Amino acid sequence: MKKRLLSTVIISSLALLTACGSSSVAPPTLAPAVYTVKGTVPGTLIEAFCDNGSYYSATSVQNGTNQHPFEIELPGNLGCNLVMTTNENDPANTIITPIGFRDANGDISTRFSASTDTVIDIGNISLFIDVTAAAAFDSNNDSVIDVPYDAGVVTDLTIATAGATTLDPDADGIIEPYDDEDDDGIINRDDPDYSNLSTDSDRDGLPDSIDVNPDNDENASNTYPEVLDSDGDGYLDDDLNQDGFHDDDQDLDGFHDDDLDQDGFSDDDADHDGISDNDPNDDPDSHSSDDT
User: Fold this and answer.
1) 225: cis peptide before it, omega within 30°?
2) What residue ranges do the domains of the chain occupy?
3) What pLDDT is stored for residue 195 in this prediction?
4) In degrees to the nearest 10, what's the CA dihedral of 45, 49, 53, 56?
5) What are 187-246's pLDDT values in tens digits?
6) What torsion, rounded to 10 degrees, do the Cα atoms 166, 168, 171, 173 define?
7) Contact at 8 Å (CB) between 150 and 114?
8) β-strand 80-86 against 68-75: which pairing, if any?
9) For the chain, how far is it from start to end, CA to CA, in angstroms?
10) pTM to 2 decimals?
């Protein structure tokens, strides 16, 4: 079972309305080009978190074996991270595993991308399904395996060089929602004070300081981080042409063109408050308000 991109659903709905004779419906927006990742896993939730804040999920298909097939569609030419969870409906036995692939240097990196209109088979991902066996690889008991699963080299996937990324600023291979920043055994997503410096009231892995709706996060289930899409329309707030990228991201790498260190903020926003450090009026910087 696979989850399609939000805009695909929008197109289908608008096309139906148009066919029924509605003249007030705007022309549909073209769906972003996609590719498909498939493979087999134990009974598993598969999640993808992408550079532009979009989120996708799928569950494997029960087939009576321990190698359940799955497919998940992702936006083309955009960096994404895969996380897989076994026993996802049993909190006491949940095991969360980041998925890594070998980059050009042979190192394991969790950020990848691919060109559109391809189907990429990553093979069998033999995850832990027994918490006792997994315990030796979960040093802080937060249900997240300490290092990414090594899926090896996968043809047709473009693997980013291992290192810090927007979703993984400490370069440990675990993206922010599933990291445990204060090392208290509770992942950031479920820990309201995970930074010990700021509060995450709605427990979505996004601190209140940059969460547009910290008390009642309606977008947290389908967009990470929600500050990218404050109106919940499935597109970045600064993606006026709705192509899935920031409007100032001319090279379509998922980052602002003036974000050379790829920390998700413009380089003239050193304190990461969404406001240009050079703005004497303290007005929001038009292209540093989003944290990808």
Assistant:
1) yes
2) 1-29, 32-191, 208-292
3) 62
4) -40
5) 888 877 766 545 556 555 555 555 555 665 444 433 334 445 566 555 667 777 766 677
6) -140
7) no
8) unpaired
9) 27
10) 0.62
